[in-house]
Amino acid sequence: MAPDPDAALMLAFQRGDEASFRTLYERNARAMVAFCHHLVRDAARAEELAQDVFVKLHAARDRYQPTARFKTFLYRIASNHCLNELRRGEYAARARLAGEEPAEPDALASGAATPEEAARGAALERAVAGLLARLPEKQRAALVLCRFEGLSYEEIAAVLDTTVSAVKSLVHRATVAAADALRAFAPGSAEEVLP
Amino acid sequence: MTHPRDELTALLDGALAPGREEELRRHLTACAECRAEEARLRGALALLAALPPAPEPSPFFAARLEARLAARRERGLASWARLLAGRWRLAVPATALAAAALLSAVVVRHDRARERAVAEHLDLLLDYEAVASVDLVESPEDAQVVAHLGELEGRP
Fold it and tell me: Which range is most confident: A117-121, B14-18, B130-134?
């Protein structure tokens, strides 16, 4: 296994080096905010959840075993925490509306060359938010970890505490659901959303 | 013909064993239905990849996190202080209770020792002089009474 600099930092933190913890969150804050955002599709909530993840990581210092890759350990904390949040009634009610709410214009305009492209991007974002809100939680986590975080099936299995063949099935079902939900955006589709 | 549709996503992700991947690729060249499904899934993956990037952490992320960790550390210290204070509050009555328990144990033990001695020497109790001679009668007055019990009872 390749050397894992984050694991070394976590071990230093276990020995009481608080500066190592600071380096750890500086290195991983962006990934955690992105991961939480992919799961909850809400920028403010994602930042709050990412903070919770680091507070939990700080509290879990003694539980870390260097046998596990740090990335797996961190995503496991983050997945459990976000899925718990998604189960909470208050958040679930907001998530049901996600597909119907207009997305934030500033966030959607990024990278779009024309207003039409921005509009298409906004529609795509809404469609994906609606898809994620409808997916069963394990499929949603597997899809996000695979498609947005770039984790391998083996890493996802370790994060979700399941088998590689279960991950294969979760990712496939979620991808089929994505193909159904986004068919209007596919080139040549009769209902294609054009820029 | 069996259509390996459940494995098409793993094929796109390069997550199949080399032998199995080869089998699926051969199947795709022969099966238009599976080819269409593979193209549909490939299109969905391209759309997901085209989503705008997730937002960056805000400039206050580190400061807010440090503040939360500091608050947590303070709460932890306060809990310890409360726990220790609680222990001191409990210490005085607990010590008094322990002392009372110790005293009771000594008294009970002493009484038990006396009862055991009497039980062991029951046969001697009929001989008042012997009773007076063993260390079961504490005061000299009592010893005098016991020593003369025979006379008091009118025994020879």
Answer: B14-18
Token pair 């000299």 in the structure block, residue: B140
Of B6, B50, B61, Cβ closest to residue A47: B61
Q: CA–CA separation, A178 vs A56, rounded Å?
A: 32
Residue B137 main-chain phi, psi, to 5 deg: -110, 125
Choose the mutation target among A49, A176, A189 for the interface with B, i.e. most B CBs under 10 Å: A176
Q: Which fold has domain A103-195?
A: Arc Repressor Mutant, subunit A (1.10.10)
Q: Which CATH class is domain A1-96?
A: mainly alpha
Contacts of A47 in chain B (CB under 8 A): 55, 57-58, 61
d(Cα B92, Cα B112) in Å, to the nearest integer? 30
ipTM exceeds 0.90, yes or no: no
**Chain A residues with CB-CB distance to B50 below 8 A:** 124
Rounded to 10 degrees, what is the CA torsion of A10, A11, A12, A13?
A: 50
Phi first, then psi: what are they for A191, rounded to 5°? -105, 25
The pTM score is: 0.70
